[in-house]
TrEMBL record:
Binding residues annotated for Mg(2+), in chain numbering: E795, D819
Superkingdom as given in the UniProt entry: Bacteria
Protein's name in the database: Pyruvate, phosphate dikinase
Protein's gene: ppdK
Record keyword ATP-binding present: yes
Cofactors: Mg(2+)
Start and end residues of each PEP-utilising enzyme C-terminal domain: 562-918
Reactions this protein catalyses: pyruvate + phosphate + ATP = phosphoenolpyruvate + AMP + diphosphate + H(+)
InterPro entries xref list: ATP_grasp_subdomain_1, PEP-util_enz_mobile_dom, PEP_util_AS, PEP_util_C, Phosphohistidine_dom_sf, PPDK_AMP/ATP-bd, Pyruvate_phosphate_dikinase, Pyrv/PenolPyrv_kinase-like_dom
GO molecular function, one term: pyruvate, phosphate dikinase activity
Length: 931
């Protein structure tokens, strides 16, 4: 027989899958001997069965009866009886805490009879009727589905009536008399009858069963499903239900209820911290119905309960070895613990608490590393708004909010068109690009803007994905915004408020970490953690650094955990950088080399003409002239990069992008030629000279010859190198000459040559021979000794599947997981992210974009095959990854497990990768970070 019900004395904290988080921790507190009211937990399995079958398993009813009878015997009372009734709460509690599910129902078991018994037992009539009205209110709203405000407005009316009777304004709920509450109960029961067509159920067991069922059903509400989809919580876990003996905080001023934390969850500062409310029940504390008291106040009011609470919290912190939060109730001077869990915290608090616990010798440094995440570190690196914006209402005010899509704090004037953003940025102005949604044409504007704000779209919309990719602050889906590009206005339509009309040129501030949007300029400060990473600890802790103790403590914690991660990690961390400034920055942030230096951008601008000449040349001399002119320019590029990374490896990838990016626009050229021809045919004077026309015609013919239907799968990478003789040789020569020059200056350059898009070992062999002969030629002539490793990207499935062969010609592999994902899935990234992904994420084909986190089952399998098979032919082969996945926490864990030697990511992700590589090395089991 399946056990569907566990008494609190039977469970423990490690069974959260079955008992839910709340149930598992209630059992754990019971085991610890803390004062938890007796109760039992109905398992998530029972919920799954119920949902599958549409009915409770028969055994469940029986087991609930048994558990209830045990409970009644233990406390010496019977559920809802006339004399001294047992009352219970029915509380949902899934594996992960989930707003959007059913609320708790308190005081189950009260009816017209037992309310009398409760009053007699407590010698407090008012209390009994207060409890009864609360039951009908909670039961009515959450079990019977009556809108909650129907009850709260009846309550408001009662408070107004009482106040008027006293010749005053409305009073608080505690001022209602027993008689008022008795009348309110009658009103509430009338509401139930009217709304549901039947009376409020008087049978205590029926109340209990209906409440349990309602908790089960709440697992599948739209709200709950949506929440789980967003948080990537599986849809099939089900929720547990906890049935707990009621204890009462609403028994006058010697009673009360509160929440507390063992440390400050906002800053991580040591010392217990909490809120308390006298004569209150359940969620009154957090609902803000009256002003709360502090724990110090509790100490004054009831020193004994205060002391017991602090002891219990200390006990919990010792036991869980982490920050815990608790819910507690004091019933006439007696403390009861109603809930605990390892508490949520801000990123800053996570770092400070982790190192504080190491200092207190409660956890090891390895464990401390598990308590923080790369994402938390990343969020500490972004600039921040200096103060709570609402404090200085004069300069700025909250306008609206959307989804936090890419963190950071950005201030600028509104522009509605990408061209305008580019133009404004050219004039040195700071702008925020505000659009309904963005598309690939907005790229230029997005680069030029300080931040991006859209009215539509979610966290995987074009704006969100692109902004995150380039580290630009972004808020998406601010639905109250109505963006009218033609009128040049942005209208904010918040319900219940007059619309606010903004114009292009108005200043706004957006917070990409919270999704908030403000009117006006909120002051921005650079992050102290960022300052520390770039300039060292002294920059923050030295005299005149002017940071407060809390900030200093945070920076010290980050420093300590990063250094520990560096000691423990097996993966090296390199950066993707193509220009000396980025390389230097990456180096300051801890990069151990450059894993990917792209050479594409070096061929843009004025140099493009030269490349065009190389590609279209129809005789060797013409091509050689262009190559000769490019050589010194490339040499300078590489020299700067190698110098910035002196002593560290720099992997230079030979030219990769598709051919057409270097050629003139076909349509434009075709039109020009056609117009000229028709002019001449019409007998009129031409606009071009004969030579010009001939040159254009030649180009046009070449373009038509080279036209590709699908350039991403066409002539690019190594294919281009083999098609255009001399191109790769020139690049390699530039690299070697740059290195030779640096050696002569007494430096230690470490270039490596990487060949892109190889699919067959023969391709690599041909290029490798060419590279080696150039290297030999240049170094022998210069009399300088240089070894330059030659390796390849693994970015085609065929490369991964023939890795054992390709390895024979390679000194290293670097997994280009961006293209490997495109070619494995057959996805064209820019196209599918825009059109397909939101549907695929909604219907569960994807749980996350495979371009963000590596698709372990598919693309990852190719990586594993390539790792394993390449090392059979070449055991010491150096293996790394240079796709954007190199900076993604979950992917880093995968690469660690797969046995790679390094990850390479964008410079600003380097600290994140260092931390995550350390975390991966200090756990065996892959653990998704706490939700
Ligand atoms: P949530 O998950 O929203 O916190 P809870 O199940 O913890 O919901 O309950 C809501 C409120 O009711 C909390 O303040 C809790 O402490 C209180 N509560 C729950 N069960 C009892 C009980 N048996 N006696 C007194 N208060 C209770
Ligand atoms: Mg709640
Ligand atoms: Mg709770």
């Amino acid at each position: 027989m399946t056990t569907y019900v566990y008494d609190f004395t039977q469970g423990d904290k490690d069974r959260a899958d079955l008992l839910g988080g709340k149930g598992a921790n209630l059992a754990e507190m019971t085991r610890l001997g803390l004062p938890v009211p007796p109760g039992f937990t109905i398992t998530t399995e029972a919920c799954r069965e119920y949902l599958a079958q549409g009915d409770e398993p028969g055994e469940l009813r029986v087991q609930v009866t048994t558990a209830l009878r045990h409970l009644e015997d233990k406390v010496g009372r019977r559920l809802g009886t006339r004399r001294d009734p047992l009352l219970v709460s029915v509380r949902s509690g899934a594996r992960f805490s989930m707003p959007g599910m059913m609320e708790t129902v308190l005081n189950v078991g009260l009816n017209d009879e037992s309310v009398q018994g409760l009053a007699e037992e407590a010698s407090d009539e008012r209390f009994a009727w207060d409890s009864y009205r609360r039951l009908i209110q909670m039961f009515g709203a959450t079990v019977l589905g009556i809108p909650a405000d129907v009850f709260s407005s009846a309550l408001d009316d009662a408070m107004t009536t009482r106040g008027r009777a006293a010749g005053d304004g409305p009073v608080a709920d505690v001022d209602l008399t027993a008689q008022d509450l008795r009348e309110l109960v009658a009103t509430y029961r009338g509401i139930v009858r009217e709304r549901t067509g039947r009376d409020f159920p008087q049978d205590p067991r029926e109340q209990l069963d209906l409440a349990i069922r309602a908790v089960f059903d709440s697992w599948n509400t739209d709200r709950a499903r949506l929440y789980r989809r967003r948080e990537r919580i599986p849809q099939d876990l089900g929720t547990a239900v906890n049935v707990v003996t009621m204890v009462f905080g609403n028994l006058g001023d010697t009673s009360g209820t509160g929440v507390a934390f063992t440390r400050d969850p906002a800053t991580g500062a040591p010392g217990a911290y909490g809120d308390y409310l006298q004569n209150a029940q359940g969620e009154d504390v957090v609902a803000g119905i009256r002003n709360t008291l502090s724990l110090d106040d509790l100490h004054r009011i009831d020193p004994l309960s205060h002391q017991q609470l602090l002891q219990a919290m200390r006990r919990l912190e010792t036991h869980y070895r982490d920050l815990c939060d608790v819910e507690f109730t004091v019933e006439r001077g007696h403390l009861w613990m109603l809930q605990t869990r390892v508490g949520k915290r801000t990123p800053a608090a996570a770092f400070r608490i982790a190192t504080a616990l190491v200092d207190e010798q409660l956890i090891t440094e390895d464990e401390a590393l598990q308590r923080v995440t790369g994402e938390q570190l990343a969020s500490l690196l972004f600039p921040q708004f200096a103060t709570e914006p609402s404090d200085d209402g004069a300069a700025s005010r909250a306008l609206t909010s959307g989804m936090a899509a890419s963190p950071g704090a950005a201030v600028g004037t509104i522009v509605l068109r990408s061209e305008d953003a580019v133009a404004a940025a050219g004039r040195g102005e700071r702008v925020i690009l505000v659009r309904r949604e963005t598309n690939p044409d907005d790229l230029g504007g997005m680069i030029a803007a300080q931040g991006i704000l859209t009215a539509r779209g979610g966290k995987t919309s074009h704006a969100a994905v692109v902004a995150r990719g380039m580290g630009r602050t972004c808020v998406v889906g601010a639905e109250e915004l109505d963006v009218d590009e033609d009128a040049g206005t942005v209208t904010v339509r918040a319900s219940g408020r007059e619309p606010t009309v903004l114009h292009a040129g108005d200043e706004i501030s957006i917070d990409g970490s919270t999704g908030e949007v403000f009117l006006g300029a909120v002051p921005v400060v650079s992050s102290p953690v960022e300052r520390y990473l770039e300039e060292g600890l002294d920059a923050v802790s030295g005299d005149g650094a002017a940071v407060d103790d809390e900030t200093l403590s945070l920076v010290r914690s980050v420093d300590r955990l990063l250094r520990h991660a560096d000691e423990r990690r097996r993966l090296r961390v390199k950066a993707n950088a193509d220009v000396p400034d980025d390389a230097a920055r990456a180096r300051r942030l801890g990069a151990q080399g450059i894993g990917l230096a792209r050479t594409e951008h070096m061929f843009l601008g004025e140099r493009r003409g030269l490349v065009e000449q190389i590609v279209l040349a129809d005789d060797v001399t013409e091509r050689d002239i262009a190559l000769d002119r490019l050589l010194p320019l490339q040499r300078d590029d590489f020299s700067g990069l190698l110098d910035a990374m002196d002593g560290l490896p720099v992997t230079i990838r030979l030219l990769d992008p598709p051919l057409h990016e270097f050629l003139p626009d076909h349509t434009e050229l075709a039109v020009r030629v056609a117009v000229e021809r028709s002019r001449r045919e019409g007998g009129g004077p031409g606009e071009l000279s004969d030579d010009e026309l001939a040159a254009d015609e030649k180009k046009l013919a070449a373009l038509e010859r080279l036209h590709e239907a699908n350039p991403m799968l066409g002539v690019r990478g190594v294919r281009l190198g083999l098609l255009v003789p001399g191109l790769f040789a020139m690049q390699v020569r530039a690299v070697v000459e740059a290195a030779v020059g640096l050696v002569r200056d007494g430096k230690d350059p470490r270039p490596e040559i990487m060949v892109p898009l190889v699919g067959s070992v023969r391709e690599l062999q041909i290029v490798r021979d060419e590279v080696e002969s150039v290297v030999r030629g240049v170094t022998e002539l210069a009399g300088v000794d240089l070894t330059i490793p030659v390796g390849t990207m693994i970015e085609l499935p065929r490369a991964a599947l023939t890795a054992h062969r390709i390895a024979t010609e390679a000194d290293f592999f670097s997994f280009g997981t961006n293209d490997l994902t495109q070619t494995t899935w057959g996805f064209s990234r820019d196209d599918v992210e825009r059109t397909l992904f939101s549907t695929y994420l909604d219907n569960g084909v994807l749980t996350i974009s495979p371009f963000e986190t590596i698709d372990a089952d598919g693309v990852g399998r190719l990586v594993r095959i390539a790792v394993e098979e390449s090392r059979t032919t070449k055991p010491g082969l150096e293996l790394g990854v240079c796709g954007e996945h190199g900076g993604d926490p979950e992917s880093i864990r995968f690469f660690h497990d797969a046995g790679l030697d390094y990850v390479s990511c964008s410079p600003f992700r380097v600290p994140v990768a260092r931390l995550e590589a350390g975390r991966a090395a200090t756990t065996d089991a892959p653990s998704s970070s706490s939700r």
